[in-house]
Task: structure prediction
Amino acid sequence: MLRHRNVILLFFILVTVLILSCEQSNTTKHIPNTPTSGKISILADNTFQYILPPQIELFTSIYRNAEVTYQFKGEQECIHDLLNDSCKVIFISRKLSDKELQVFKNNNLIIHQTPVAQSAIALLGKPFNNTGVSIDTLISLLSGRSKYNIVFLKKTNGTVLYCKDSLMKKQPFGKNCFITEDTSEFRKYILDTTHLSPMIGIVDYSIICDDDDPWTRQLKYFHNDTLIIPVRKDTKSPAFYPDQTNIATKDYPIVRTIYCIRRGDNFSLGTGIEVFIAGEKGQILFKKMGLAPIIDRERKIELKPY
Result:
């Protein structure tokens, strides 16, 4: 009788060991790095916090063996981490400069730069929301030669750097310009009417592109009036609002292109994400969110006589 009990006990021990070993093998199973599977780390400009997650969620919902983590940092931090191999793919609102590309080349790194969407620099506030503002006037505002305060959302992002490098030609901002890191605080600055000096907020259009979002609608259409400031190239040109159409046609004068920048020439998960977001599904999703896609699907309408 004792012998039978020992046999039964040994049997249960063997079964338990087999089950545990199977579970361990499943959890440690190696998933190959292919365009639709594996693990990858992505960085993006910190103003893309609303437009990148839906793309990654859609990609991982289709390709279940793909594990994608992402963070949002300043533009230069993204480029620095890509160079140091802290990530494989970054999303920023410009191509790398010749000087930056040379650094990658000196490190024997191959770089792919693919445009995936068009965005813009957007101005928000009560000043000029009926008359519009020219590029020269905007430069004057940034220089501090006005009574208006300028607030940026997030530091070291593409919007701030574009205004400083391209508009201000690397000249310092005026004392009327400042930055807030908090989205709610930014919104309060724009909507609050108690400020002694009127506020003008400057953000990437991707922050306010989705009209289905209640926060966006309140910020853009406060009290049934728009807070978006139209912009004109010069005082003689018409002013245009930043919207999907005006950005796509470049009638709006401060358009920027979002790039997917990938290191390496391997057939990897980074390649799959790049192709996906630049492809049909990714472009349709960008369009649905309110951005201007790089490639818009052709719509054919057939008219038949009665």
